[in-house]
Amino acid sequence: MTRMTFAEAARRALAEEMRRDPLVWALGEDLVQGGIFGQYKGLVEEFGTERIVSTPISESTIMGAGLGAALCGTRPIVEMRIADFTLCAMDELVSQIAKVRYMFGGQGRASLVVRMPQGMWRNSAAQHSQCLEAWLTHIPGLVVVAPGTPADAAGLLKSAIRSDDPVVLMEPKNLWTAEGEVADDAAPIPFGVARHAASGDAATVVTWSACVPVVEQGARECGIACDVFDLRSLWPWDEAAVVTSVRRTGRLLVVHEAVTVSGFGAEVVARVVEAVGTGGLRAVERLGAARAPVPFSPPLENAMRITPARVAEAIRRVAGA
């Protein structure tokens, strides 16, 4: 095990996959310079500019080129720089990449990874701080993953690269410098398997991505023993693990950075209610952002953040403490 940042774990995992498979390559803005978060730092020195490719500033071109390269048999890593910029390439992603396997009866496959760093990051304002995860889980044909630890950043990226389906990797911008233990030569982590981060009978708490360390800290601070699950992937997601826990605890709290309205937390709650029934639930709550643009002002941005204190308070409410 080695302690490293989220960005370094992802960079190392990509390098290992590029050494393993010569068909893996990456394209996007400023990749030769190391990428905006340093997640490609040093890779061009080892793999050259034919496999670490800096592109023009045209997201639709980047996404479309990735699709064409995947259909020709390579495994591209399509770097969108931040998730907000994907809006300029949504037609290529939603209407082409997500549907090509189905529409051509499996004769063509978009085996690629779209990296979309999302969420708040040092006062980046309304157009650079969005969480679009719920949009993408709504699209048939896409796998959507959301790591919340350096170890998962490595393992899920490896699984994404090896997948024959298109994978959207929602990487939390606020965690690029967060540190954690990562296994040497980390193994791929299968999609749809949550990480059971803590155990307890008072309530079931579900989270993912940037809220993972926040929820873990909040659960510790409130002193109430809860089942805490880091979903790791949003589609597929580990419905069985969550439902099994809720059947025991009878209480559910879902926490995410994205806007609460129509967020993926609503899907989690709906599926749990369908599986457990209202008679098996004593308390249900979602904790997420207000339906408002993310402000540039640091104090206003902080007012929108999910904090350990807010998580602890929500756990107390749900647990009836």
TrEMBL record:
- Keywords, alphabetical: Oxidoreductase, Pyruvate, Thiamine pyrophosphate
Q: Supply the InterPro entries for this chain.
A: THDP-binding, Transketo_C/PFOR_II, Transketolase-like_Pyr-bd, Transketolase_C
Q: Which Pfam families match?
A: Transket_pyr (PF02779), Transketolase_C (PF02780)
Which cofactors does this gene product need?
thiamine diphosphate
Q: Looking at the keywords, is Oxidoreductase present?
A: yes
Superkingdom classification of source: Bacteria
User: Where would I find the Transketolase-like pyrimidine-binding domain in this sequence?
Assistant: 4-177
Which Gene Ontology MF annotations are present? oxidoreductase activity
- Please name the SMART domains in this protein's record: Transket_pyr
Identification of the protein by name: Pyruvate dehydrogenase E1 component subunit beta
- Identify the species of origin: Neoroseomonas lacus
